[in-house]
Amino acid sequence: MQLTLWTYEGPPHVGAMRIATAMKDVHYVLHAPQGDTYADLLFTMIERNAKRPPVTYTTFQARDLGGDTAELFKNAAREAYARFKPQAMMVGSSCTAELIQDDPGGLCKALDLPVPVVALELPSYQRKENWGASETFYQMVRNLADTSVKRAPREAGQRARCNILGPAALGFRHRDDLREITGLLREMGVDINVTAPLGASPADMARLGDADFNVVLYPEIANVAAGWLKRTFGQPSTRTVPIGSGATRDFINEVAELAGVDPIHVLANADARAPWYAKSVDSTYLTSKRVFVFGDATHVVAAARIAAQEMGFTVVGLGTYSREFAREVREAAALYGVDALISDDYLEVEARIAELQPELVLGSQMERHIAKRLGVPCAVISAPVHVQDFPARYSPQMGFEGANVLFDTWVHPLMMGLEEHLIGMFRGDAEFHEDAAPSHLGGSVTPKTVVAPVAPVEQAAANETLTPQEATWGLDAEKELRKIPFFVRGKAKRNTERFAIDRGVSLITVETLYDAKAHYGR
Amino acid sequence: MSAVFPIQSVSKGCADAPVLKERGQREVFCGLTGIIWLHRKIQDAFFLVVGSRTCAHLIQSAAGVMIFAEPRFATAIIDERDLAGLADCNEELDRVVTRLIERRPEIKLLFLVGSCPSEVIKLDLSRAASRLSSRFSPDVRVLNYSGSGIETTFTQGEDACLASLVPVLPPAAAHAPAALMVVGALADVVEDQFARLFKQLGIGPVQFFPPRQANEMPTVGPNTVFLLAQPFLADTAVALEARGATRLPAPFPLGVEGTTAWLQAAASAFGVDAATFEGAIAPARDRATTAVARQRTQLAGKSIFFFPDSQLEIPLARFLSRELGMLLAEVGTPYLHRQHMAEELALLPENTFLSEGQHVENQLDRCRAAQPDIVVCGLGLANPLEAEGLTTKWAIELVFTPIQGFEQAADLAELFSRPLVRRLRLAA
């Protein structure tokens, strides 16, 4: 058993629902107990879909367990087909139904429905949501793609054609990423054959073979399917995820190569403001801000590159809950000289952030909780997210406009430059003081005497001390420490303590503080 | 009250009315969702769900933004090692609970909450609870109940939780004077209002169950009479009766009429004379009547359709039809307890279409055919129905908002008029 306060991913059948809901003319019959219909509200409330997810639940109850739950499933499947007349059906079990072992796939075969039925085997006690989405998409591609459809070799002057793979329901910014990248591909002179799963019908899926290559936007969902398409139709796929200006340029070059087109004009016409914004002197103070990155593998790898190379931050920590992509994240972490944190344990992530004392956290909804507790600025870069991260406005993460969005989003929670300078110079202001939240966020009303946001940091830091030896803070040194602006104080405190312990200094004085400062730099 | 509502006074009600019983897909929450309000009500209790990732995901999704605060609930996720018997579930549970209690030493009451997976694999949480209780006694008391979807629907989770507490309530002294217990979690402000009214009526002592702190459990015994404040407490009532307590039959305290009758039930049991009763409740009742009348202009003549959700549907329908003049297209309830609902049913308009259980697709067909002015339904249905042009009131809010008592009667009506007003405004 695992003690779980928050979970980064839902169970795998939620991943399957994300595929079913993304697609058209597909229906999912899910063997599940009463109550599991809660998952509908993920789509109707968080994503604000105007339609019910195309999912029929058997919603069995205790009294059904004594009877024939298999018959219940068959009735539900029969009724769902009759009512919704889908082009294809998906059938599977949720975690409880997995325990009673009714075999939805076999049962549905016996119904002999006149449409393809894709049976999903999703081990709920080992796997999670993204795996479920990936496996479901793979099974749908395998079962629905017509293997007799093959793209004829391209003649001179014929435009290249690609599939876009990965965007799904309940995906973080999938809607706008898709629009951004579709526009980019068209601008490059590449036609779109099929976009899947988002908006694809089973008939569309049958045409997957009629493309020259695949654009994989979300490897968590589409890598496995893309691998099968490569083996079956010989379609290569893109490997760069176009999040960030640099990655977008790499992506354009990669697509140009696969499509045999010239990328020059697309690169030249790019409406990319983020690189200039980052170069402008107003951004100088962002240099070496210490940032911790956590989320799904694709988004953290992309975010770390942007943070380090496009924003000039220092990546002090990097991690993911996507175990399937641990290798990629470890490789990325090595680039920045940090150890990757591969964990889906919220408490472990919290401990790591407390230990590293970053000035900015880029993470998921869960890291927002942690950052709030620790009083650290935070921006959301990855699922899981809540309703506010399914915005009404256009806000992609991908492409050049995505890079513009990311610049604004990440800088926003940080204290602005002038305020940061003034707080470094003058203390004791009733309104603008070293413990106050940035005034552009309207958070300056925190009374100066309240040190609550700092307390957990210091406590956590104190608990982390591994050496039995301890250094105590002299009164003057402690006073001096409080003059350091809040967002770097935690780091300064830890550095000073480490410095003192390493040198066997038991009482930290003002001198020790500045010795440590000189030793470590900022 | 008959003078205020002359039209319905001749109605025979729905006491013997036929009820459409349906089976099929049920679009409802499981009992685990009760944790979302119970963990705030009992301030030193912790709810540990023993279940799957689905259970953890459910509470997290249903709790919405509230999860920004460190909550007093968590999930012990069963994994394949537990299922394969590689790990002893009981040892695992003990380890998880020990870690939890170390992390949250302020916890006085720990509920092990059963789920569908734990019920299906027949994990004996009651034995685990008594074992852990003796280990952590006297600092922490460990109890168990089931909030599984296979056994409980939404608010029945509260029923299961309270029923698990009843056997450990301290016994009332043998010759103690009659005491009143108000049963069912209420908003603190509502509880305080009721406490004041009972005091003015001269009724006492009054105890509320569940209490705000684990060490303030009410006593129970043959001299206890109890009023149900919520309609979904069937098992809790049985458990209290098993300890000698007596239930006072009454409608539920929703609306002016319901609240008056509910208080009257207590007043009669405690021999409060009519003049005292009138004197004590008149100011609040009259205030509420005026405030509700304002809402009537928005709601009178409008039709309403209830999907099953919380068992609050029948009392709500009674309030909306009698005090606000709404027309009842269908009143769906997940479960109909005839005895506890008898007073309510008698007050419903004759020929009200009642349904128990659910076949959601059929019910949606009926709803679309009826084209009601407002639909009360869950979050999975609300936006899709809005997109079809129907106006909805999502039902969960009715459990999370103070709606009982005189002072809340107009607020309750406003919850229903707000979506209609909004639709008018947005169209303009």
Weakly predicted, low-confidence segments of chain A:
444-468
Based on secondary structure, the structural category of chain A is alpha/beta
Q: Roughly how much helix do the residues of chain B carry, as a percent range?
A: 40-55%
Number of strands of chain A: 15
Total helices of chain B: the number is: 17
Strand order of the largest sheet of chain A: 11-10-9-12-13
Biggest sheet overview of chain B: 6 strands, parallel
Report the oligomer: heterodimer
Overall description:
The complex is a heterodimer of chains A (522) and B (428). Chain A has 522 residues and is an alpha/beta fold. Chain A contains 23 helices and 15 strands. In chain A, the strands form 4 sheets. Chain A has a 5-stranded parallel β-sheet, with helices on both faces. In chain A, strands 3-2-4-5 form a 4-stranded parallel β-sheet, sandwiched between helices. In chain A, α15 (326-335) links the parallel β10 (314-320) and β11. In chain A, α7 (129-144) runs parallel beside α10 (219-233) and α21 packs across α23 (510-520). Residues 444-468 of chain A have low confidence and may be disordered. Chain B has 428 residues and is α/β, with parallel strands linked by helices. Helices cover 44% and strands 15% of the residues of chain B. Chain B contains 17 helices and 14 strands. Chain B has helices spanning 35-41, 53-63, 80-83, 89-103, 116-120, 125-136, 156-165, 188-201, 234-242, 255-269, 274-299, 313-324, 342-347, 360-370, 379-387, 397-400, 409-427, and strands at 19-22, 45-51, 73-77, 109-114, 141-146, 179-183, 206-209, 224-228, 246-247, 303-306, 327-333, 354-357, 374-377, 392-394. Chain B has a 6-stranded parallel β-sheet, with helices on both faces. Chain B has a 4-stranded parallel β-sheet with strand order 3-2-4-5, sandwiched between helices. In chain B, α9 links the parallel β8 (224-228) and β9 (246-247). In chain B, α10 runs antiparallel to α11, α10 (255-269) packs across α12 (313-324) and α11 packs parallel to α17 (409-427). The radius of gyration of chain B is 22 Å and the shape is globular. Chain B starts with 18 loop residues before the first strand and ends with a helix. Mean pLDDT of chain B is 93; it is low at 1-9. At the A-B interface, β1, α2, α3, α4 and α5 of A face α2, β3, α3, α4 and α5 of B.
